[in-house]
Amino acid sequence: MTDLEEYIFDEDGNPILQCPNFPQEEQLFADEDDCKDIFHIKGDGYDVTLSLARGLITWSNVNPSGKKKGLFKGKGKGEDKNTVMLKEVFGVKTKRKKSNLSSSEEGVCVGFSVHVADAFGPNTLSERLIVFEHPSEALCSMYVRKINMYMEEMHDRPKSVKLFLQTHAGSKNGSAVYKNKVTPLFQAADVHVDCVEVQHNEHIKQEMVHINLDDYDCIVAMGGDGTVSKVADGLLTASQKRKDIDQKSGFTPVKAAIPLGIIPIGSTNDTGRSVMGTDDVISAALYIILGRCTAVDICSVYREDRLMQWCFNCQYGFAGNVLTFRKRYKSLGKRGLEPAFIKALTKAKLRPYKCDVEYIPADSLPKNRKFLPCYRGCDVCWHEEVVDDNGVTEDLVQAFDPLAESNNSDTLVNLAEHEDTPWRSRKSDFLNIGLFTIPGRSELAPRGMSKYSHLNDGAIDLVLVKDAPRKEFIRMLKRLTNAKNQLDFPFVEVLRVKEVRFRLRLPTGFKYNDTNFNEIDYELERRKNLIDNASKSDILELSELSDSDDDDALSKSNNSTGKTVQSISTTTKSKPPFKKSQSVQQISSKLLKRTNTETSIKVKNMDDSEDSDDDDLDDDDDSDNSGDIVSINSVGVRTVKSASAADQKLCGPAYRPTFAEQDRARRNRRLQKKEEKKKAKEEMRMKSVWNIDNEIKEEDVLSFRVHHGLLKIYGQGVSPDTVVYEPTLLCIPRM
Fold first, then answer.
1. Tens digit of pLDDT for each residue in 544-572?
2. 448 vs 377, 481, 548, CA distance in Å?
C-alpha cells in the first residue's frame, strides 16, 4: 500500500495520485501501466515492479524462506533497500557478458544495471549500483527504455558540460581524481564532457570570451576557490555580453544563462562547502548530474567605475596578509597555512590600517532569524520571490552621491549628516575588513567566517574588525573553530549592506629623507609656473622701459603675422642692473626658455619688422642669426651661444673626478638606496592587499555591489543535521 504522502486531495476530499517530479496537470506518465517481472538481485529472486506513474521501482523477495532458486543461482544476501525513486536514478544500461557460444560482439544479455545516487550522511551522496539479472534481452531493453524515457523528462539535468580542470589545485592530483572518480560518473549518466586543463592564469578568461553558452547545459569548475571565482566571472561576463549589456558602474545585470557546477579539490573550498555543505568530489559530481541547484548571491567589484570582476567573499587586512605569506610556504601544501598564520600574527606584522568605508544599509532581519545560520530550506533565502520576466535582476540601490567623493581623506564628507542620501560611513583603524555574500565555510572555519550570512538574501555581511589588542584578536580567531560567536566582541561590528565603497587613507608625506629632492629644480619649476600663469593673463610688466618704447614694441608684436610672442610678467623685489640697458626691440623679439640650471633666451626673427633704429644695429645682427641662444645665469652674466655649437663635440682630455669626489658619490648612492628601502618599508606598513576569493588584488580604492540570486550553483545548501567537527589550528594555541 502506498504512503499517504504520495497523494493529494481535491475539494471533495478524494485522493489523487501525484507525480513526484511534475505538476498535477503535467503528469505525463499517469496513464502508464506498471511493469512486473521476476529478476535476480545478488543471487536472490525478486518480484520487480516499475511504476512510472509513481516514479519508483520496487522489488520483494519471492522466496521468503531464503532458499536460492531461479535461473541465476549464486550466493548473496540480496538487496536490503527494496525501493528506489526514479528521480534518484542517473544512469541505466543493459548488462552484457561475452560468451564463446554467442557470435555477437557485444555479448549475451544478462540483465540491466541501474546507477542510483543515495544519501550518505546529511550532505554527502554516494553511488549505488543495482544489477537486475534476466536472460531476456527484450524484457531488459523495455525496462531500460522506460527508465530512460522518464529521465529525459527531467530537463534540469545537464547533457553537455564544459569543465575547467585545475591540475595544480590543492594536493596537485586533479588529473587522477578526474580520471578515477569523476569520469565514470559522467559516463554512467551519458553526459558529454568537454574538459579543458588550465594552463596559465588567463586561460579561463580567454576560453570564456569565445565560448558559446548555447552549446552547453552548465559550466563546471574543478579546482579551488580561485578557479571557481574565475569561472563564475567568465560565465557572468559572457551572459552580459550575450544580452549586449555594457558592464559599467550602476548597470543592471542579467542572470547567468546556465548554472555553475563546483567540484572542489582545492585547499580551502569555501564556496563549495558553503553551497553543498561538503567538499566530497563524488557528492559534487552527483549534484551536477542530478541537476539540483540553488540560487546564490554574488558581488560585483568596481575599480574607477569600471567592472573589475565578480566574486563571492572579499577581505582586506589580516586575511590579505595571511594569503601573502602563504605563497612563501607554497611548497608545504595545505600545511603552509599554519606558518602563514604565525607570520601574520606576529607583533611586527599585525597592525591596523586606516580606511574609509561607505555603505548603503540593507533591510534588517527579524529578531528570530538574526542569529540563526543559513541551512537547507532557510525561510530567508528559499522563500524569497523575485518577480522578473526578462531575467533582469532589480537592485534597489540608489546612484552614487557626488558629495561622498573626495580625493583627500582629510576633507571626507560625513554622509550620515545628509538626510537625502542613503550612504553611511565608517572611518577608523581596522585590523580586518570582510565582505561576505556566503558564509565562507572551510576546514578551519566549519561554521563559516561569517556564520550568519545567507546564500540568497540580497545582502552583504560587512564585518569590521577595529583596532584591538593582539590577545583579543587571537581570541576571536580561536572562536572560528568552535561553536562560540566570533563576532561577539566590542571591537567587531557587523552590518547588512547592499553596496560598499572602500578607500585606503594614506598620509601626505613619509618619515624619511628624500634624496631625489633638489631645491634648485624646485625653485626653477616654481618660477616657471609663475611665468606661465602670467603669460595666460596677457600682462607685460616692465617698469624700466619708457612709454614710447613700450608702444612701439606692442605695435610690432600685434602687426606680426603667423608669429605669437608670449607676454612676460616678472615680479621680483630687486632687479639686476643689466636689465636697464635692454631695449624694447630686444625684449619683444626674444622668447624666454627655462632650463634646470640657467635662464636662456632664444632669439627670434620678426618677418614684418621694417623700421629699426641705428642704435640697435648690433641687436639686429644678433637677431638675424636664428640659431643664437642668449643665456643669463643667476649672477647676471649674459652669454650668447650658437645653436650649431651646441651640437659640436669638443675633443680633449675628459675630466676625471678626484678620489674624494668618487668616494662622496659612492656614499651618496649608498645613502639613497638606504632611504629608498626605508621608503618602501614605510609604504608596506601602511598598505595591505585584498583577499578576493583567495586571490591577491593590490587595490586602494574599490567599490562593491551585491546582486540577488544572480547565479545558480549545483548544490542544496547545508543540512541542519550536519555534524560539525571542531578543528584545531596548531599554531594558535601556542601563541
1. 444 444 444 444 444 444 443 333 343 43
2. 18, 9, 87
